[in-house]
Design brief:
Order of helices and strands: EEEHHHHEHEHEHEHEHEHEHEHEHE
Number of helices: 13
CATH class of the largest domain: Alpha Beta
Helix content: 25-40%
Radius of gyration: 20 Å
CATH architecture of the largest domain: Alpha-Beta Barrel
Number of domains: 2
Bound molecules: magnesium ion
CATH topology of the largest domain: TIM Barrel
Length: 388
Amino acid sequence: MGAASPPETRIRRIRSRVLDLPLPAEFRPAWGRNEIQHSFHVTLIEVETVGGVVGITAAEAGREAAVSVDRFVTPHLIGQDAARPESLIGVMRDAEILGSPVYCVEIALWDIAGKIAGLPVYKMWGAATDRVAAYCATGEVRSAERRVEDCRRIVAEGFKAVKLRFHSDDPRDDIRVVEAIRLDLGDRLAILVDANQAGVLPGLGGHRQWTFPIAMDVALELERLGVTWLEEPLPRHDYAGLRRLRDRIHTLQLAGGENNHGMHEFRLLIEEGCYDVLQPDAVLSEGVYQLRKVAALAEAAGLLIAPHTWTHGIGLLANLHLAASIPNHSWFEFPHEPPGWPSTALSQMLVSKPWIDGDGYLNVPERPGFGFELDEELIEHHTVATYG
Ligand SMILES: [Mg+2]
């Protein structure tokens, strides 16, 4: 341990509230075949100091995340100095050995540090920019006709890029959707593609797993169509396959990493040459500040960072601060798939819902810390369990 902690920033309490948040309409996630989603779980975590500053974060999971925090994190953080996140990151890493990943807790500690400093986190970290170009991330598999309609709306809303899901039994059906959008909108919309091949959620069977030849064929077709990136074409630990695929394409970027965990795994992805664009998530993959270190490794290797953000509004904003603090950020994921999962559903726990400006950029909140303002009334209404 270093110098004695100033008493006012010592952690006094960690409280977790499990929320079951409703979606406005049925949502059929492309990554969960036959799944119909009506709501999603979030565990809201508040870290309170003796001096009364509260750091906020949230896990993507429900009770399993709350139990993991309660058992493996809270006992080791109470009494520690919240404003020294770097000295505490080991607690979050060790928790994953026995429990649900809780890297998100580092967000709460930096939220406290920012509030004490009176600065938004991205400015504490150097502020490469104060806004990041967003892409509209869709989440369902839809017909070419419906996607063309969607993309007309997406352009009208001000987005400059869209991400589509490739999950059909025959990938040629997915490619036809890209062709239809290109025919209708030309180059007015950059097109990104996500195949979600890196891993399947437990219990969501029936997923069409691509072989290397399928991934190769799709990549060449997407290159022909001027697509920006292909995301997760192969399993997340198939380093050799990803490298082999990346070696054979030229203008198409390979993206991935949302399901990889820890600094060492990202170093491996960089050293093995798997991706052009790394997509770690400050809620899922590693601590938010630790991802700045991953970003530095990526920068030196000539790679880009585009955080995964499809968790909740708190995760979206934390990843936005991260992206704005590094020079090598790419398109920023903005989940928005009406009617089931519009961006307002993702950010329903926040008073002000993030939205793009007139140029299609997300502006980083200027409030101290990460700038989370919680809708307490909504949160209390949807709380199904409390820990700590
Ligand atoms: Mg993805």
